[in-house]
DNA sequence: CTGTTAGCGCCTTCAA
DNA sequence: TTGAAGGCGCTAACAG
């Protein structure tokens, strides 16, 4: 592919490359007529600025790198979509990078992005080894952590944006209490995840304040999947069961609960109310209609991009912004008033 | 952000930049010891090649642009994921660009990508104005159309990879016939979409050959959404209804059909069998379990990347590769044997 | 208003 | 085996 350069245009227009450059960047010191003539030739010849060359000088690429754990997961897909939309409003392009758990060589990915001279990086999800990554790369490129609640620990020297997991569960507890539920189960506690620990604490604390009984079912599988939810719920439903509501630690678990209920003839919400956490797209489906807590991907994305932009445009590093966003209750049809 | 350059390293190592360059690109003409010493200093100083500079010379960025209509649509999310995985195997990074229908200025997007000097572009989905785009940009950058069946028309001078929509419906018809269905409905024909026209033709042709009756319900809404499916199916179920199976032109329509059936007490598959088209993630959900035709995003992605790589590495343009991939039947629980 | 010169960071001749 | 010089396409001084 042969590309037309500023030099070609200069030759064709009979002017110097500087003049062409000025025309292109509408600089003030240029004769309007010359400018028009030059621009005409540019259009005619299909000239397109070589951004590589420009970035080489300005050391600004107007590209940010976005690292997602898995774009096929609906929450991250939504996040990606909104990041892109928002970044574009700032004149930025997104370079999207997925990491699969197997070959997850994040170091290589960071090296690549920095070599590519991206202006900043959005690292989403709670990736193992994040701290190490920050220590190694934060000096070389602005980084903002997204949807990673560990980063809210004051010991983490970094900027981050995350939904408030604690407040989310609080919301769920208050909602169930408002519907008259007194005896509920928290299904799917994962001790390996900081986010889940927070969710659990928020729920238990609030339920306690409101005088509700809560029994916790742990999820030992280490994954919040539909099958995990299915298994946990089966055990729950097969034993004598007095609780009136279930708070599932994630929507996928909740879907598993729905399936178990189906199998065992437990009707939701008539016999048991169910509320999830995440508000993944599936939750809105006709046959699902799951009441849940939204992690508000759009708000997280917008805020994350903003924080990153500020970081990019600020001179002094070493000052970090942290945002904890309020989650939102999405009421659908899996909870009923007692 | 101050970056270490090859020059800094040269100074620190007491050699010339050329030598450093040779060490970095493991060129043969260099003393192994010098090389080690230089590389040590590079590591120590956190040197990272400036790919902008390198690309400026090589005029290869090892980046491809991928344009998606909507990353939040499960099919395209899956496509993106696999494109990225596959491109990486070729040593390529992906620059992902979503286009929202509103501001869909594809010309600007193409200009940007070309300015960014991406080595090639994957344009996915059936975007209006594709022909015009090809005419304008194909000379400047290798382009491959993905999941756009219009491009299979021989009048289109371009490379493309697409699932065989005709064969997909054929599969559906044969499957229903095999189960003993003789009288079926094709639900959701959209005359504005070439893909849908093909799906319809494939179904009707095959049904005819097999001696089945097929009645077609058109979808006038112009969108294959859940609500569209819901409305069409309501009308269908409320009138006297003798058919034993429904082929929905897309999975979203099928989800609408499921909801209508639920509402009106029609049980699937006991009273009516249902088969969709797409195999979106939702289709596999516990409470859905929709039998459908897969568009095989992984295969489409892999093939598309391959074709693009060949195009990038070949000298002569003007020769186009087209691939029509075979779809696959995904049997779940919404069809029954008569 | 316009052109000349220099340089961004790197690679590639060509000489030493 | 090493280095010096030139240039990729562009912008930014500084003269004219």
Portion of residues in beta strands of chain A equals 15-25%
- In the CATH hierarchy, the architecture of the largest domain in chain A is 3-Layer(aba) Sandwich
- Report Rg of chain A: 26 Å
Unreliable stretches of chain A: none
Largest sheet strand order of chain A = 2-1-3-4-5-11
**What do we call the CATH homologous superfamily of the largest domain in chain A?**
Response regulator
* Oligomeric assembly: homodimer
In the CATH scheme, the class of the largest domain in chain A would be Alpha Beta
| Annotated CATH topology of the largest domain in chain A | Rossmann fold
Largest sheet report of chain A: 6 strands, parallel
Helix residue percentage of chain A: 40-55%
Query: Biggest interface and which pair forms it?
Result: A-B, 54 and 54 residues
Q: Note the overall shape of chain A.
A: elongated
Number of helices of chain A: 12
Separation of the first and last Cα atoms of chain A: 70 Å
By secondary-structure content and strand pairing, the structural class of chain A works out as alpha/beta
What is the count of structural domains of chain A? Answer: 3
How many strand elements of chain A? 12
Mean pLDDT of chain A: 92
Question: In sequence order, what are the helices and strands of chain A, one letter per element?
Answer: HHHHEHEHEHEEHEHEHEHEEHEE
